[in-house]
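Continuing the batch. This is chain 6 of the set; chains 1 through 5 are on the previous pages. Same settings as before, nothing changed between runs. Recording input and output for traceability.
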Amino acid sequence: MTQQHLFIDFEFTMSQSKGNPSMFRPEIIEVGVVSVIDEKIYDTYSSFVKPVLFPKLTERCVGFLGIQQEQVDQGIPLAHLVELLNMYMSFGPTKVVTWGNQDIKVLRNNCRYSNIECPIKERERDLSKEYQRFFGHKNQSGLWRVLEEYGSKGIGKHHRALDDALTTYEVFKAIEKDKAYMKPTKQPTLGDRVDFSKILSHLA
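Output for chain 6:
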């Protein structure tokens, strides 16, 4: 059965000051999803999501992401987002792909706070870690910088969920191509190198 790759990117609320104040909990405020089946984009989805624990966006969050309070106020609730992800997961065997491990971590935390079952049960495929291991980098690289290293530019605007999900898919294709190129080829056997039929005909 064909496997679906589901590229997911979330944008989160941010505290006013850097770091992670003890009372603050990041919440999803934008979702971008790219469904890829048979190596082709099957569907995409984008929406703002309404936060619950900290419904008012901080100035730092608005300034960094460019997302406005009015947009998240009209966003879908977390329960709707979970239903949507469950729908995508029902398409068949699915591997979720993200850039970094924060997206699914925050999703699971948000679901736990809201007493909703998280739709993603298995561990996601963290493309940033794969890239880091594959090229032997010590530090994690930024998504758009990695694509620029491949000679391409990110899609749309950085830190917009769907644009980042689409850019993750582009990096995924580039890394998969590199992996296929680096995969060792099968060593030829003696039978592949020598035509024994010709040798036997000379001896006959």
